[in-house]
Amino acid sequence: MVPGSGTPSVTLYTMRDTGNDSGAHTALVIDGSQRVLWDPAGSFKHVSIPERNDVLFGITPVIEEYWVSYHARASFYVVGRRKLVSAQSADRLLNDFMAAGPVGQANCTRVTSAVMRQVPEFTSLPSTWFPVTLDTAFAKLPGVETEIYREGDEDDKSVALMRLDSEIRTAALRR
Q1: What is the 3-state secondary structure of the chain?
Q2: CATH of 9-174, one of 3.90.1720, 3.40.190, 3.40.50, 3.30.750
Q3: Whole-prediction pTM
Q4: Arithmetic mean of pLDDT, 15-29
């Protein structure tokens, strides 16, 4: 378990197609009493990262960077939008997402938006199947900070996963 940073927040990640700007995936980093990644129907896996019901545990800032890099490539870029929330809301989201998963393919945004709408900071978000619709609404919430991540990696995500594995193993040897 990686404890939270002390500043409860939620970061909505939206993977977008570089060719037509359409949305391809939705995920969240929840930073509450612990730091987790809700990656519904996601393909990011590593033996050092425990997962239950599409919630990945032990998400340090470095693992989060790897996760973003895994998704950002020549054909997709990643939009990250961070919003501060109450500690209670962060932990409620963690519990609610644990109860919601695992999620089937093409349902990432539908389930994410439905769960988020139950928390006070996010009641204004729409219930939607579409990543760009959720991303656009989230961007309009007060206090949201935005970062866009672009990389030119080839489309084969297994290459990014091999790099991640190598870097995690190297970091473990340094401890």
Answers
A1: CCECCCCCEEEEEEEEECCCCCEEEEEEEEECCEEEEECCCCCCCCCCCCEECCEEECCCHHHHHHHHHHHCECCEEEEEEEEECCHHHHHHHHHHHHHHCCCCCCCHHHHHHHHHCCCHHHCCCCCCCCHHHHHHHHHCCCCCEEEEECCCCCCCHHHHHHHHHHHHHHHHHHC
A2: 3.90.1720
A3: 0.90
A4: 94
